Amino acid sequence: MTDTLDHLSGPLDIRVPRHLARLMRAELPAAIDEVDAEIRRTVPEYDRPADSAYGRILRVGVEQLLTAFVDLVAGDGPGRAERDETCRALGHFEAIEGRTLDLLQAAYRTAFHVCYRRTMSIAEREGVPAGRLTGLVEAMIVYMDEAVAAARTGHRKALEHADMHHREVRQELLRTLLRQPPASAEAVEELARNAAWWPLPEVATVVAVAPGAPCTRSALDGDVLIDLDDAEPRLLVPGPFTPARAAMLRAALEEADSVLGLTLPLSRVAHSLRWAVRLLTLAREGVIPRGSLIPCDEHLTTLWLLSDPVLAEEMARRHLAPLADLTTGHRRKLTATLTEWVTTRGTAVDIAESLRVHPQTVRYRLRQLDHYLGDSLGDPKTRFALDVTLRAASLMHEDDALPPGPADRADPDAGSYKRSGK
């Protein structure tokens, strides 16, 4: 019995030593891991968590492509049939994601280089003559060319079956729904009924997405309106917002900085988008933690307090103007004490525990505040305004909303603190 394979159906005939085919099969798990890792490194768009939709698709594709090649050169299994089916599916996926085949072809090239390098290493280790490998290398090249051709077929068919006009009209419908001032009800109804085949819901939920953030479009439900090309990318989910809808968005936006807007009547979703975009900006500025699908309804007070940061700063300047001539350090201590008093109305002992100072220090500061701010602290309207102002300053991480005071002098707290006996 000969120790070579004499057949390979298709455009090439190669002769591969059987023991080399066995070695290649034994190397498959390690080769799959290396190809997977190298593709993630060289094609950043595919570098997603292993348990994400992208990660799973990439892993399955690599496994099937490499396994089919080894089956092919070993004369086992369908080989090309499975390979072509996988590649057509990959091409179809790229079309759904709105991309050309450039990234997929880059991944194929990476896979070829890794497999070629590993094969040469095996051959050198096992003493296989270089001349015996010529046919195998040629087969690798033809295999990858055929894989690209199959992916191109899947990509083309996906585009043929996708109604591009339908997608464009739905994008226009979304922009119309979110237009300010609002479009007429008649214009919205006509666009939805005659062009986009999209039943108008009573309520909808808008999602604001950071520009350039990744989104797995294929994970989205078919009735979700998408506009990721806008300067403020957004999605709109029609109907009540259910746990299933939430799971769908998590799968599509698992790595994207984004904000989940409020579920509102369709006529008010433009307001929901405005608030969601503002909250996304606050997240990117560090006011609230960044993340995927930040719930807007958990940050309504923050949105309200910071709806006009310049106005919030001006309120702080006006309400705290009597403290303007104090040193920066002393003013900050008084402001911190005032914040605790206004928001909690606690006793000196309670405030001291919160601020980690002596109660006598708190009493001393409260007397100073009473001196500087006078009767205004007894006015409920003023206390409310101070509460709102100080909360807004805290959200903006403003330690001192007033301009710098005179040069630092001896801290008045120091003497009081020592006299208290602490």
From TrEMBL:
<dbReference type="InterPro" id="IPR058663">
    <property type="entry name" value="PucR-like_N"/>
</dbReference>
<dbReference type="Pfam" id="PF13556">
    <property type="entry name" value="HTH_30"/>
</dbReference>
<dbReference type="Pfam" id="PF25906">
    <property type="entry name" value="PucR-like_N"/>
</dbReference>
<dbReference type="InterPro" id="IPR042070">
    <property type="entry name" value="PucR_C-HTH_sf"/>
</dbReference>
<feature type="domain" description="PucR C-terminal helix-turn-helix">
    <location>
        <begin position="334"/>
        <end position="392"/>
    </location>
</feature>
<feature type="region of interest" description="Disordered">
    <location>
        <begin position="397"/>
        <end position="422"/>
    </location>
</feature>
<feature type="domain" description="PucR-like N-terminal">
    <location>
        <begin position="15"/>
        <end position="178"/>
    </location>
</feature>
<dbReference type="InterPro" id="IPR025736">
    <property type="entry name" value="PucR_C-HTH_dom"/>
</dbReference>
<protein>
    <submittedName>
        <fullName>PucR family transcriptional regulator</fullName>
    </submittedName>
</protein>
<dbReference type="InterPro" id="IPR051448">
    <property type="entry name" value="CdaR-like_regulators"/>
</dbReference>
